[in-house]
Structures are given as C-alpha cells and as structure tokens.
Amino acid sequence: MPLIASISGIRGVFGDGLDAGVLVRYSGAFGAWCREKTTKPRVVVGRDGRVTGPVCTQLVVGTLRSVGCDVIDAGMASTPTVAMAVMAAGADGGIVLSASHNPAEWNALKLLDSTGEYVSPEDGARIMALADAGHLPGVTYTELGRLHCADYLEHHVASIQGLDFCRQQAIAKRGFKVVIDGINSVGAIAMPRLLNALGVREVKVVNGDPSGLFAHPAEPLPGHLHETMEVVRSSGADLGLVVDPDADRLALIEGSGRYVSEELTQVLAADFLWRHKRGPFVTNLSSSRAIDDVAARYGMPVFRSAVGEINVVKKMQEVGAILGGEGNGGVILPDLHYGRDGLLGAAMVLQHLADEGISLAAWCATMPRYVISKNKIPLGRMDAKEAMQRVADGISDGSASTEDGLKIDFEEGWVGLRKSNTEPVLRVYAEARTEEGARTLARRVLDELA
Fold first, then answer.
1. What is the pLDDT of residue 449?
2. Helix/strand/coil (H, E, C) string of the chain?
3. CA-to-CA distance for 279 and 350, rounded, in angstroms?
4. Quick check: 151 and 81 in contact, CB under 8 A?
5. Cβ contact 289:315 at 8 Å
6. For site-directed labelling of 39, which of 47, 321, 350, 373 has its Cα 20 to 30 A away?
7. CA–CA separation, 438 vs 410, rounded Å?
8. Beta strands 177-181 and 202-206, pairing class
9. What are 322-378's pLDDT values in tens digits?
10. Burial 413-444 (b: 16+ CB within 10 A, else e)
11. d(CA 268, CA 344)
12. pTM surpassing 0.70?
C-alpha cells in the first residue's frame, strides 16, 4: 500500500507502507523543522485508540527526543485536544497519531504548528524536503529532549464550558438522555467527560472500550451505524452523538433512530451561532449547499475553499469568519481553536436544543433538504488529472470550476471529482434536492470514467 503524504498528514497501512523507518524519518524531519525555529523546541504528541498507537508513539517520542526536542506526551487524546494542548503548553508543534476515518490497520502522523493548526502547505513542503534528505540533527547525550506526560482533556472541556454561548445550567435543566458511539477509540473517553461536565442527565456509551478494535467501519456514515441507531431508538434517548476515531468529526442521530446527514452538522452549528453572533462562514467546495440557504436567512456570507482543514482555516482567517467547517461533520470555531472539533459540535447542538426547548428532529425539519451521493473509485493506475479532464470534456452543460479537482454546478445540484487527501481513491460527490437526483448526477461522472 503506498504512503500518502498530503495536507492531511502522512498516512498508510501499518507494516505495509507505514513502518518504523517511515515514522522515524518523518517525525525526525518534523523535529528538525521545529529546531530551525528554536534551539530547544517542545512538541506535544497524542494518539487515538488504534492498536498500533502505543508502538507508534514510542517511535515518534523517541525520535523527537533524539533530535533535541522536549516532548509532552498527551497520551490517548483527540485531535482537537492535542491542538488545544499545543496552545496551552506554548509548544512549538504537535503530532497526532491518528488516521482519522481510515480503517483500523491504518495510522498517520498529523502535523500541527505552534498555533495548533495543521502545518501550512509551505511548511509541509519544508518538512517533506527534510524527510527526503534523510539527515537528522544530531545531539549529544546532554542535549537529549526531556519527556513530560500530561492530560489535556480537562482543559479542552473547561474551555468549551467557558465559551460565551455555553450555559450548562440550561442543558442540565433539560435533562437530556444521550447515546454516544465512541467506536472503541478516544471519543469513548472524551465525549462522556464533556457531556457530564455540561450537565447531561444520562449518558449511555456504546462501543466504549478504547481498544482501537473498531466496532464498525470508522467513518460515521449511516450504513455503518445501524446498531447504534437502534440503541438510540430503543433506549428512549433524546439523540445520539457519533464521532470518528480521533473525535474531530461529529454525526447525529435523532431520538427516533434516524441518522442525520453529517453534512448538516456544520449547518446546524451555524444556525445556532448566528443567533448569537454575526459574521462570515467558510466551508469547502465539496460541502452541501444547505449552508448557503441557512446563511441567506441571516443575511450572512459564505466563502468556499479547497477541501482540507488547513485550507478552510486559511480562508477563515482571510475573511474573518466566525465559524467554519467541512461537510464531513467538522465544526471550526476560532473562539476555541482553529481546528475541527467533535466535542465542540456536540456542545453547540445540545445548547441549542436546551435554549429552544426542541428536539433534534424538530430542528432538522427546519433545515434545507439536500441529498449528497458520496462515491469513491480506487485510483490504481488511473491518472487523476486525465480522469477529471475526461469528465470535463464529457459534461459540458454545467458551470465548471477547477479550484479543487473538478466541480460542475447545475441549477438542480452539483457534481465534484477530486483526488483524496487521505486514501488512494478518486472521490465523486454529487448533490441534489432528492436522492434520485443526486444518484443521477453522480452516475453521469461514473459513466464518463467507466
């Protein structure tokens, strides 16, 4: 399996592309990059619940110390918790060992800068160059980096509680019963801590053993969550909260057991925040048009970026956005930190339901209805650029954009084709008002590639 190096990190299948040598080379290059900025950098390291996490952490921590970096080991921690730890510790960078939504055999190095954000494309290119050069800075035994262990989950939770809109008294008064699906990873630890702190009356955790043996495919999609949806329905819960293995994405389940499209997570968050604060919103080019419709209700602008958290963040900073996200269930609030955060999304949803005294189903019923068809095609030997050109040549009745792969807009919807940042696949997304409409648009692209 080939190693994938992109703005989303360095990821691969452990033992088949991602091995000890790769982990040492890239973490050493990251340490060398940090030392270009300061002689004795500090780096926060955290991991999700994957089985390979402990051994990967040992390799990464040892390598960073060997090139002269002090290391703060945050243990098992969500990606947003590590980001906040970097900020809280005044660290020079961070590494998260998590392949996010990829299957359990995958792992990855997610690289963060001193602000807790993903490294920029420019900094990423420098780190890649250092890794390719293969020369790591040597230090004497007196210059070895020190190791300190610390848990930053309490800081993360307290920071969410301290947000202006957060009123846990209202949440406690509502007496929520909530089901959490932690997929047997770090979310099984982090989400209950948050909900208990917010005053949720009853928290039921399914797939709550942080063993890294995922109870279902890691991406929080409806086809993977039948058992969880049934638990929500049969237990009489008010709603269900589902995270991916590193808890930066959030999907929702109504009390009836109906799955709420992860595309709506950021839309609901925006609908909530615009009641408290005015300002622009940023999302990526592959996210639902629903955010544009909701923004129009408030007279707020929406800006789009290429897919990838750092691309969304840079656009947010450029336009002064008060909120951003991606249609994969990620919500980004600058008042907390510039990164997707499943815990934050859960707090915003619960606060709105408590403030308005409504159910999740009633709230979702006020949202615009769109359906997205998400497909992926193994790259194999396919040339991605050639494939996109073939689609552009074959579908000429829409308005085409090549800002991020290929996106073609129609009056009734849109289709998008781009090379994945996280898997060796081409992603084919299509959105329309109906399921049939979305499938029809997606089929047009898939037929051109057949």
1. 87
2. CCCEEECCEEEEEECEEECHHHHHHHHHHHHHHHHCCCCCCEEEEEECCCCCHHHHHHHHHHHHHHCCCEEEEEEECCHHHHHHHHHHHCCCEEEEECCCCCCCCEEEEEEECCCCCECCHHHHHHHHHHHHHCCCCCCCHHHCCCEEECCCHHHHHHHHHCCCCCCHHHHHHHCCEEEEECCCCCHHHHHHHHHHHHCCCEEEEECCCCCCCCCCCCCCCHHHCHHHHHHHHHHCCCEEEEECCCCCCEEEEECCCCEECCHHHHHHHHHHHCCCCCCCEEEECCCCCHHHHHHHHHCCCEEEECCCHHHHHHHHHHHCCCEEEECCCEEEECCCECCCCHHHHHHHHHHHHHHHCCCHHHHHCCCCCCEEEEEEEECCCCCHHHHHHHHHHHCCCCEEECCCCEEEEECCEEEEEEECCCCCEEEEEEEECCHHHHHHHHHHHHHHHC
3. 22
4. no
5. no
6. 47
7. 12
8. parallel
9. 999 999 999 999 999 999 999 999 999 999 999 999 999 999 999 999 999 988 898
10. bbbbbbbbbbbbbbbbbbbbeeeebbbbbbbb
11. 12
12. yes
* Contact in structure between 397 and 448 (CB atoms under 8 Å): no
What is the spatial distance between Cα 269 and Cα 258, in angstroms, rounded to a whole number? 19
**Res 1: pLDDT:** 67
* For residue 263, pLDDT beyond 70: yes
Q: What is the tens place of the pLDDT at every residue in 214-252?
A: 999 999 989 999 999 999 999 999 999 999 999 999 999
Q: Is 100 a catalytic residue?
A: yes
270-306 tens-digit pLDDT = 999 999 999 999 999 999 999 999 999 999 999 999 9
Angle at which helices 20-35 and 53-66 cross, to 10°: 40
Contact 342, 248 (CB under 8 A): yes
- Rg value, the chain, Cα: 21
Tokens 């289709």, residue located: 415
Listed residue (124, 106, 120) closest to 424, CA to CA: 106
Q: What pLDDT is recorded for position 134?
A: 84
**Alpha carbon distance 77, 214 (integer Å):** 16
Q: How does pLDDT run across 178-189, given as a tens digit for each residue?
A: 999 999 999 999
User: How far is 113 from 132, CA to CA, in rounded Å?
Assistant: 20
User: How many other β-carbons are positioned within 10 Å of the β-carbon of residue 314?
Assistant: 19
Of 100, 114, 159, 185, which residue is the catalytic one?
Answer: 100
Q: Name the one residue in this structure whose structure tokens are 């990164």.
A: 339
> Do 239 and 171 form a contact (C-beta atoms < 8 A)?
no
Q: How many CB atoms lie within 10 A of CB 222?
A: 16
